[in-house]
Design goal:
Blueprint (H helix, E strand, L loop, with lengths): L3 E5 L1 H7 L5 H8 L3 H8 L7 H11 L3 H4 E5 L3
Antiparallel strand pairs: 1-2
Helix pairs in contact: 2-3, 2-4
């Protein structure tokens, strides 16, 4: 069975953008702060729409926020 993992750079990007709070990002992405916390901790994979909203909040491409890592086959 193949394992894959979605990594993210949300925490780093928040701090690079004026130490943006989780709540501010949540407001911009139209989700709860708890959703942002779960994303940062890799406990939740976002929908494509949410991934795009988060990338837009930072003004970067989705690939700068989320990185797909394919495990060994």
């Amino acid at each position: 069975m193949e394992s894959a993992k979605l990594q993210n750079s949300i925490r780093r990007l928040r701090f690079e953008h004026g130490e943006m709070t989780q709540q501010k990002l949540a407001d911009l992405a139209r989700v709860t702060r708890q959703t942002i916390a779960a994303l940062e901790a890799s406990r939740y994979n976002p929908s494509l729409l949410l991934a795009m909203r988060i990338a837009k909040a930072f003004g970067v491409p989705v690939e700068n926020v989320f990185q797909y890592e394919e495990g060994p086959k």
